[in-house]
Amino acid sequence: MERYTGTCDVKILFENSFREFFKPLCFHAMSFVKDEEAAKDIVHDVFLTVWTRRDEIDFNQPMLPCLLSLTRHRAINYLEHLKVKVRHAELEAKAEAIYFPADDAGHEELILKIKDRIGKLPDKCREVMYLYLIECKKYKEIAEMLGISVNTVKTHISNGLKNLREEFPASLLLLCFPQIKNY
Q1: Which of 37, 45, 35, 36 is nearest to 70 (CA)?
Q2: How many CB atoms lie within 10 A of CB 75?
Q3: Terminal Cα-to-Cα distance of the chain (whole angstroms)
Q4: Could you give the domains of the chain?
Q5: Which of 49, 56, 77, 121 is least enclosed, having the fewest CB within 10 Å?
Q6: What's residue 2's pLDDT?
């Protein structure tokens, strides 16, 4: 069969396909996405893809099966994308509920829980973590106050934070104690 190679012929065939199949393809997309605007966008994307890849398409072949297949795939991709967006929104809402207490009392309660967990650390580690997180002392200050090396302070802080992360997410600890961002 002879293949259309003239730009004018391809343009006419494309325009005819658009006029003939746009509405049926919208109905096809609607059967998946149940949203008229989304269905129209999907079909527009399908035709845009066909136009941009027109050099690879044999316009002598029936267009409808190809267009139906592309529309179905785009609709399914759209639905998958919606699922991801919903999941992401749910995770964000959950994170806000956990990480951003609505009132100061909730924040204070959280700090008390963290302090309680710090209180359960081994003696030296507890002392270092208290000075670091609660009193906001620097490594060198802590080392001088306790008569230990800066490296020992770093080790205690590392172990203490590891222990705290078992109960509290790192982002929550950062929210309550911004000085640990360097860790």
Answers
A1: 45
A2: 22
A3: 69
A4: 7-98 (1.10.1740), 100-182 (1.10.10.10)
A5: 56
A6: 39
